[in-house]
Protein 1
Amino acid sequence: MGDIGRGLVAIGAGLAVLTGMMTGLGQGYVAGKAVEAVGRNPEAENKIRSMLILGAAIAETCAIYGMLIAFLLIFVFN
Amino acid sequence: MLNNSDKVISLQIEVFSIIIITSVLLLFLFLIGRAIKKSDPLAKPKGLVLIGMIYYQMMSGLTKDNMGAKAAVKFAPYIATLALYMAVSNLLGLLGFNQPTGNYSVTLALALITFVLIQYTKIKVNGFGGYAKGFFEPFPPFVIMNVFGTLAPLISMSLRLFGNITSGGTIMMLVYIFTEWLSGFIPLIGGFNFIGIVVAPALHAYFDVFSGLIQTYIFIMLTTIFIGNELPQE
């Protein structure tokens, strides 16, 4: 693979990691809603915390997919 | 590019980690089982018996919350086994082994078991006619979407676990390479990776312990929720 090809692979990997952008928005939304829920209903804090972590981790999946594709691009097409 | 010219039948390195995990878990569970058999049911539980009881209560409570008490009796052993195996194999990265869950074959197999259980429950509840008819709901052209919707949990669950563990392992590898290069500039200690020792523990705590346990929790939660959705409401 020539120099241009390797450069294109690097650009592709960089673009794949951009999935993290929307994931950040989603996780922020989840955290904000959790804060609202605790403010409205402080007794349920423990349950809300576990659901917050679950929701945030599921939202993170999207970013992980992008990262996986970036790793595949870098390590397979090198 | 990957070199496909010299294909040989070889063992992947995760096979050894799997053998180690299974033998250690077998020994541990055997010891717990022997302790439970020996123990006095009326006395206060302690030691290994207590650990087993706490774990059983935790897992059956979690299963009961999502599936209802009747199905929990049937599914709790599977959930508990899955959680134990996955938690131990995710934490194995701390000891420097290759995590079995960092191999896509392993996560695909784990997700496949869950997938088969979901379909089995669906068929058992609706009958095979109802199951086949469910693909053509609400009207026939939806069959494409329904097939993809059925296959989606298999792909998303296996890739989620695999991606998390693999990315953690790769980042740790990059950190070690980078810190080794960086500590080459420090005089006197020379090739000794001094900076890595300072930086790595926090990252290990996040990528191996936190991320691994959270992914285990998510996997078993999703398994119970998906199977619980197919069960009839009590």
Protein 2
Amino acid sequence: MPKQYFSLRNLKFTMHELHKAQEVTEYPYFAHLDREAIDMILESAIQIADNILAPCAIEMDREHMAHFHDGKVTVHPSVKKYIKAIGDAGLIASRAPLSANGSQLPETLNVAMAFVMGAANNAITSFAGLTEGSANLILSFGNQHLKDTYLPKMYAGDWQGTMCLTEPQAGSSLHYITSSASPTSEEGKYKIKGQKIYITAGDHDQTDNIVHLYLAKIDGAPAGTKGISLFVVPQKRIENGQLVPNDVKTIGIFHKMGQKGAPAVHIEAGTNDECFGWLVGEPHKGLTYMFQMMNEARIGVGTTGACIASAAYYAALEYAHERPQGQSLNIKGQDPNAPQTHIINHPDVKRMLLFQKSIVEGSLSLVMQGAKYADKIHSTEGEEKEKYQLLLDFLTPIIKTFPTEMGQQSVSSSLQVFGGGGFCEDFPLEKLYRDIRITTIYEGTTGIQSLALLGRNITMKNGKAAMALFQEISQDIKDATTHEDLKKYATALAGKLGEIQKVTQHLVGFAMKGDTERFLADATLYMEAFGILVVAWQWLKQGTAAKLALLTQNPQGDDLQFYESKIHTMRYYFAYEVPKTQGLMTRLLDDEVLTIQVENGILV
Amino acid sequence: MKILVCITHVPDTTSKIAFMNSDTELNKAGLTFVIGPYDDYALARAVEIKEAQGGTVTALNVGLAETEPTLRKALAIGADDAIRIDADPTDAYFVATQIADIARKNGYDAIFMGRESSDYNGGQVHGMVGEMLGMPSFSPVMKVEIEGTKVTLAREIEGGKEYIEASFPLVLGCQEPIAEWKIPNMRGIMSARTKPLQVIAPVSQENLTSGGHYELPPARSGCKFIDASEAEKLIDLLKNEAKVL
């Protein structure tokens, strides 16, 4: 791994100077914390990242990737060390309330920690992330017996948690699942039968048990998603105080392109009719429960996109400073004896690095914005709370999509800086390039997120959510306009918002005529344009915060350079990235649509 | 057992260091400060001993108010209370004098600290404290085991390790692998907010040294790749360009 994989200076700027993360400690829900405690908890995460995660990142991908042999899955031994460390630190229970022995941490801090640890080693973090998500489901919806049985072990990192949704014939369309649950004589206990695929951390040798949160249909349940229930299906169940096998068999692991340290497992439950599961909450509400965790999970995936791009950017930046190649384009007639210049001095390399920086820091800011809204939901009441919920719901598909889609482009650009070296295993870029590829797929593909944005969120509550967002952006445009040298960018963003609103009206017009297919045909392009503008908003906010610091703090040395770099990168983003929306919006307003009412035979 | 752990408040080892005022002063703007890495090992071992055998661990730092978050971290890791000597730690003798004064007043069975700080890397304080208190002082200590009143130490020496038996009271300058660094947990962080942190005025001590100015090491030059078949060229570069042979 390169020496640096994220910037603490930028992370603290984004958390505290930009999004004022520490403000939430003024509300009762987070009053158990103060700025010093927040910094100390973040420091613990950095310590785990530096000392446990980064050192084994490459090894987990190459020499010691997840392996399946004789029906057993083995993973890198650092997984145990990591899960125990994060469990002991109280970070698997970071979102759980104090009343449940959780740490009740703000989402801004959770995002910051996930960013740091994911940048160090994005494959390993899924082990604890899945345990946390599944434990929180039990905490929210399980009965006391389930809570007492599973939560202490899961939050301590002794037992692994997983999410079992996908089946061979049912992926994005979960209403096609066939896993079944048959009642037994004991209330809440069912016999489970079925297969699940792509179960991350679904089996491994570094925890004492694996606890699957498993979607299945109770015999006689209604058809479709309304018949899906949620069960706890442990790999080993407790009988007479002992852990005994629960007839959950690992059929194999998938040979993935990236994140090879974390196994994606194919499991079969009930091969011998001896698999038992315990109902979580009420029957037939499984998908509803699962989707209550989805906003969190999608912000998590957005964070993963941003942090992988961060690791790639800092590797590329280091290399560009060290690699001599070629001479300045301004030297007339290349002098064969003249020393070579470092590649960072070539404008095209600098452009690539500015692109990466603008995506990494823009994405982090966007993810942190969502986290701030999540914290406000916990801290406020009434109309204010409703407003923040709408803002978070509206932004979630964008938070999931922009950092992952643009993160892929950013990592590709980082790899390009390395030239041929980037394509080889001598550097971590080829790994990061493979790792980030999944992020536009899991927890809802980019296509699905785009349908959610245009098909659902734009019209959510009669457009109230969209209006709330535009009001937030307008306020920040107003703030930026008070600085003479930011006016140009504030005005540009205001103009672009007007344009995207016209595009939106144009597309919604088709929906109103009942032509849903036409309305949503280019939703992904709409998402792309909308995402660029939402991140332009984040860059304008960063520029304003940096300008304010320059005016009021008299920064010197590195600090001065940091704030000037922020403003320069904002200028880059507005000059090079924002204009890309023009082409997208032209396309979205064009009546010639070539993807609908076209015979499949056209694709030969 | 009563253990005093002396910790330094130093820039994170990955920090980019810059100076100001004609290179006579460290520019602290934007720097993240941490417990000195060797002190972190000392603290971790002291907490382990306390957890295994009972007793107390007091964390001490000689520093201005800005060092309190570092002391709070020591409390979060497992120290029971903390003392801050309210003074700028101007040189090793000054710091050792302050530590010795507190130790005389409070009486500790053992005084743990890092083998050296990671800012000035002087490695002198443990020896000075031992001398001032009339206690044996050992450094760099890689292992400490306690059995009743017998203390077994492993110390790194040129080309190997030296095993020593000692008894209390003593002063130890510690280094890895004496213990694994401890990561503060949530319970520790929350309880650190209410653990006692005492601020004490320094005892008078004239500075025996005075600072001059600082210089950064020369910037790293570009990497040169030498083909494996050209060993002579490599030797020539090492001799004449890098001047390391």
